[in-house]
Amino acid sequence: MAYRNKTYIAFDGDNDMHYYRLMTAWQANDGFSLNFHNAHDLNTARDSSQEESIKRQLRERFANSKLLVVLIGANTKYLTKFVKWELEVGLRLGLPIIGVNLNGSRQMDDRCPATIRDQLVAYTSFNHNIIEYAMDNWPTDFQNLRSAGMTGARFYNDDVYRRLGL
């Protein structure tokens, strides 16, 4: 079994790649403390034209993941080929999921993909500080809430955002 220390990031590769790239830049910059092991760095699909080849590579990434972050943009809820599949795999594996709203919303809104709408998912806005906070805290909170039988959307209140300077 693989050691699970990676963060899997799902996103709309056609429209939201710049947000993903910004997160990886935050991670690489010494001025930011965002620290994650990106599952997308593990391997690349050799035949990117074949859906099954891509999914096979993505399954390998999931095998090393302890957390799933989904960047939720304007079109994310309409993506059924890969993002929906990635969310379904994350749920099946019992991974904590953080929904990061690219529109500034701090909680679940109408852009949320139906696959995770009723699931135990933490939602944040797209900002380094709150994403880092969620990545540090949500996995433990998720396990505790799940053990207690809790479901549904979660979000951080305004006090948390204020403490983080947001």
Q: Could you characterize the architecture of this molecule?
A:
This is TIR-like protein DUF1863. Residues 8-106 form the Thoeris protein ThsB TIR-like domain. The protein has 166 residues and is α/β, with parallel strands linked by helices. The protein has one domain (6-163): Rossmann fold, CATH 3.40.50.11200. It is built from six helices and six strands; from the N terminus they run E-H-E-H-E-H-E-H-E-H-E-H. The chain has helices at 17-28, 51-63, 83-92, 114-117, 128-147, 158-163, and strands at residues 6-10, 37-38, 65-72, 97-101, 121-125, 153-155. The protein starts with 5 loop residues before the first strand and ends with a helix. The mean pLDDT is 86.
Question: What is this structure, in a nutshell?
Answer:
With 166 residues, the protein is an alpha/beta fold.
Brief descriptors of the model:
166 residues, alpha/beta, Rossmann fold, 6 helices, 6 strands, ThsB__TIR-like_domain, ThsB_TIR-like_sf
